[in-house]
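Batch job 17 of 40 flagged for manual review because the log was empty.
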Amino acid sequence: MCSKRKTCHGGPSQQEQDSPAVANEVFVIDEEVSHLTRLKSEPSERTRACLHAGKSHISTFKLLSSRESNRSGFGRFSSADCSYALRKHLPVRGPWCVDNMDCAAYISQFSSDGSLLIAGFRGGRIRIYNADKKWKIHKDITCKSLRWTVSDIALSPDQQYLAYSSLSPTVHIVNVQNALKQSHANSTDIHEGLNFSAADDESSFGIFSIKFSKDGREIAVGNSNESICIYDLGANKVTERIQAHVADVNAVTFADESSDVLYSGSDDSLCKVWDRRCHKRTKPVGVLAGHLDGVTFIDSRGDGHYFISNCKDQTIKLWDIRKLSSATKE
């Protein structure tokens, strides 16, 4: 543990109890002790006995099989069994610093195979790190025409291109697999701009969320114009606009490989399901109500049934779109 403060056996003094700093320090120490204890825990004696395991290692598969067949007689995991199963899946090393920048990191994400980490910074910089090469910088990108910050980033399915957005109607795309390590917009490298604004609309809006379709042919965005826009990269134009919510659309993603169904999340606290095959595309095929504040992020399982949403109410929810909310709940 990092803390070196000594505590007497009688507990903290009245002065220590009245000090917020000390209270916070005690809380942190307790959390660290709890975490380390869980990492070093063993399954219950009853579980070991019913599996005839002795002191040998018990695989997660055996634990789950034992629970499902109720071999222990509990019908569930004990707290010790839960901790033992979790310890093999919780991070036990780190955290450690990958890079130091002179501006705040606003967004980051891993590639689908976990080999690349992409981070966007307030100063108009994006850096891509190679996780397989000790976090060596794979590409250092200086962005073009940013407003305030990089609001979102998306890597194409083949990991060839990176799309980045800002609080403007333009998304830029850059090749991240060419030989150049330094990519300065339209100086050492081309950052192609995709304009999402309508021809007859002079108002400006910011883009909060961008996502490639599974085949890499389309890009969907959610924006401050309360809408979802879909850009066809082959036709080089916006092909669909959906007036989706009554507040900023902070998150949008494709449900599966077909790219026919989309999920969206908004500051109106709702998640919505859209089917592009329906004639009335101005209306969602389903609404999922339950969050108490703005939805900030959505990630699909990719099977067309499940997705998770993150919200400003400090909750993450797992949704099954086969069980949509009623109109009364919405």
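Reviewer: the log was empty due to a logging misconfiguration, but the result itself is present. The chain has two domains: 43-89, 105-320. Unflagging and moving on to job 18.
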